[in-house]
């Protein structure tokens, strides 16, 4: 790829994509940046509760749960190129689902509520994908984004109007989640549980995306038509990843409900689903770690800034987002990570093959 | 009979509001291929300018005249600075304009202090025909909507500016080769769409009052209307807006408002699913 083409002016994101591997390879050299970054973050996250004060640990737990949520959006937008503006639908539905389970049926065991939340998210996403993505006509990106956004808006409105779901106030005072007879309240214990779940799901997603399936998804993002010509069923691929991401959003939604102790309509609505778009765009879509970094940065900044600059913080956030979209379409992660590492690969790398050859 | 007439008027005036909001969105989407997520915030800004003029003691109609000018100017500047970078990537454009909208919305939220502020109707009272009373201001909105619609159509269909806009839409390269400055045309078209949104905001602020999330409500409605009507033509968004506006005003007479609100959108999405090209599947402006 070269950016020296003359004549027609390539759009900015093409220039960006062409330029970044050169820059990044200068930094990266022969070593891969991605695994180092992932390991460094994992270590930082593991020791964080030991050095942070308790109330910050509670806040950090929420950030980790939101990281999980961001991961789910990154899977659909960063990999398959599906702009889901209704990701909160699965997050919130699962949250409400587990809240009802604990309120009406007294079920709060983690072994029941977490799978239940995941299942709710999965089924909701599968149904929505079945309608929006499958069918005779291939759906345009605009249609899918509009459809998902409408889904989130509708769920928000219906929850607000429903007495059973607590209307405007949501469902307050959900009892704490239990493991066996142990009650899990916010603090380091909850933090490490969420971290373990996040790492597990991260690794599963990473494994999934570094397979042939993941390569096909990345191809879908770059050039959908070509993937279709290769004989893949594009719509099925999209529906599968959409449902998987719904399941992850469901898991994070149920964790969120128990961590906060209540659910309210904002969890379902457009506000929450645009929040997750912010995280992923900030950090960098198409790399799982980008979603995590983006969430951590946005939430971290908002933690420090919203105390002192409560009024102008959302404006600052908007300006930062605009700048990132304009000048770093691949997110902050593209400062250190090359385009090549964004695309997954599987099997032995070229270099290993070359070394193995006599 | 009387309730029927009243209901018809209600539906008509609400439909007119939706058409007014959607017109600018539809022109930008059809003529430039950009789905402007900041359009709802342009409506909000129009409403805010009107409120601002009113709060410093100027007459409300003057504020309503100033709103489209101010918002149109802002649209022009934003197109030059930001939006034009997005033409090659419509999806990025959605996200970029969303960020713009976020900035405007939060700025207005900061300026209004998150309150609901009201602006009086410039023409208050009601028109009485026989035993029926109609809110005068809503009647004015209907009339202005019809005028704006006719004027926009005339501008695009019969003037040399409209010809250049249509040429840039049909074939940008050929238009450039023929000496049309497509960059300028895009800027002016975007500013025009923004000005229409500003006018819509100015006209509806007495009805809805001013609050920071005013735009979001119209954004989804506007997008659904444009998609239902069909992107690419002038008539499409107008037709879509009429349909959505009519249903949004009519269904609450039959069922609870919450269900009606959701049902309109769900029905619209189902319609788009099975007819992606929308009601009007043409391109350009019919003369």
TrEMBL record, chain A:
Keywords: Cell membrane, Membrane, Transmembrane, Transmembrane helix
Ranges annotated as spanning the membrane: 33-52, 64-85, 105-134, 141-159, 190-209, 230-256, 262-281, 288-306, 312-337
Listed GO MF terms: branched-chain amino acid transmembrane transporter activity
Membrane topology qualifier: Multi-pass membrane protein
GO cellular-component term (any): plasma membrane
Compartment(s): Cell membrane
Cross-referenced InterPro entries: ABC_transp_permease, LivM-like
Keyword Cell membrane in record: yes
Pfam families per UniProt: BPD_transp_2
Lineage: superkingdom: Bacteria
Name of this protein: Branched-chain amino acid transport system permease protein
Lineage, uppermost ranks: Bacteria, Pseudomonadati, Pseudomonadota, Alphaproteobacteria, Hyphomicrobiales
Automatic annotation (TrEMBL), chain B:
Annotated transmembrane regions: 12-35, 42-66, 86-104, 140-163, 183-211, 223-244, 250-272
One GO-annotated biological process of the protein: amino acid transport
Chief site of localization: membrane
Subcellular location: Cell membrane
GO molecular function, one term: transmembrane transporter activity
Entry keyword Signal: no
A Pfam family annotated for this UniProt entry: BPD_transp_2
CDD domains per UniProt: TM_PBP1_LivH_like
GO cellular component terms given for this protein: plasma membrane
Keywords assigned by UniProt, alphabetized: Amino-acid transport, Cell membrane, Membrane, Transmembrane, Transmembrane helix, Transport
UniProt topology in membrane: Multi-pass membrane protein
Top-level lineage group: Bacteria
InterPro entries: ABC_transp_permease (IPR001851), BCAA_transport_permease (IPR052157)
Family: Belongs to the binding-protein-dependent transport system permease family. LivHM subfamily.
PANTHER family (alphabetical): ABC TRANSPORTER PERMEASE PROTEIN (PTHR11795:SF447), BRANCHED-CHAIN AMINO ACID TRANSPORT SYSTEM PERMEASE PROTEIN LIVH (PTHR11795)
Name of the protein: Branched-chain amino acid transport system permease protein
Organism: Bradyrhizobium huanghuaihaiense
